[in-house]
Amino acid sequence: MMKVLIVYYSTYGNTYKMALEVAKGVEEVPGVEPVVRTVPELIPQEIIESREDMKRGRELQKDVPLVTLDDFRSAGAIAFGTPTRFGVVSAQLKNQIDKLSPLWQERALEGKPAGIFVSTATLHGGQEMTIFSLLPALLHLGMIFVGVPYSVQNLFTTKGGGSPYGPGHVAGPDNLRELDEDEKAILRAFGKRLAEIGLKLQK
User: Fold this and answer.
1) Rounded distance, CA 21 to CA 186, Å?
2) What end-to-end distance do the CA atoms of the chain give, in Å?
3) Three-state SS for 24?
4) What is the C-alpha to C-alpha distance for residues 103 and 82, in angstroms, rounded to an integer?
5) What is the mean pLDDT of the segment spanning 172-182?
6) CA 98 to CA 164: how far, in whole Å?
7) Going by fewer Cβ within 10 Å, which terminus of the chain is more open, N or C?
8) Could you read off the pLDDT of 124-136 as tens digits, one per residue?
9) Which stretches make up the Flavodoxin-like domain (predicted)?
10) Residue 165 to residues 6, 11, 131, Cα–Cα distance (Å)
11) Which CATH number characterizes residue 43's domain?
């Protein structure tokens, strides 16, 4: 079974819910299994404990394992998920990517397809810029960038997130807006596409 690694960071649980939809898309492809992993938290525990919304987010993801270098090595394709932080990738996910130097030296990630999904509070909160902020790191690692083509018809109708650059979600200023059907469809199509391309590149 080829593995598609879905590695993400999520404060309030929105990017986590996106990761689960990507996994559903991966599962549509025979011979492929999704591996959902998160990254270490950098926000001090006392701050998390002082916020009910952050505590809910932590509780939601309590059973998700932390990603390892072996998870990256064994994956045939990788999806990276992040909330926007002032228009760029979250510090938590970037911190994990900064630890990939051993794999860069081994050239272990070269030729693997990879894509990015992102959550923002507002419609114009920097979804595309956040994806672009992470893209150079993927190219330095030798990965092949995968977006979402316009054959995915939901790109024409989405009122939330999603673009040719990757799936997106608008969580709202209170971070409580759930994924809508267009956003879910784009996430699943993205997961399926990553899995299909990963299989092709292994042959």
Assistant:
1) 9
2) 13
3) helix
4) 21
5) 94
6) 26
7) C
8) 899 999 999 999 9
9) 4-195
10) 17, 23, 7
11) 3.40.50.360
What is the token pair recorded at 203?
Answer: 């042959």
Q: Using one digit for the tens of pLDDT, what is the confidence trace for 88-121? A: 999 999 999 999 999 999 999 999 999 999 999 9
Distance CA 178, CA 18 (A): 10
Written as one string, the DSSP assignment of 52-83 is HHHHHHHHHTTTPPBP-HHHHHHEEEEEEEEE
The pLDDT of residue 203 is above 90 = no
What single letter denotes the amino acid at residue 144?
Answer: I
Domain count within the chain: 1
Provide the residue range defining the domain that includes 104.
2-202
Those residues whose C-beta lies under 8 Å from the C-beta of residue 136, and which sit 6 or more positions away, are: none
Share of residues in the chain with pLDDT > 70 (%)? 100
CA distance readout (Å), 169 to 60, 135, 162, 175: 18, 19, 7, 10
* Cβ–Cβ under 8 Å, residues 97 and 137: yes
Place of tokens 């419609």: 123
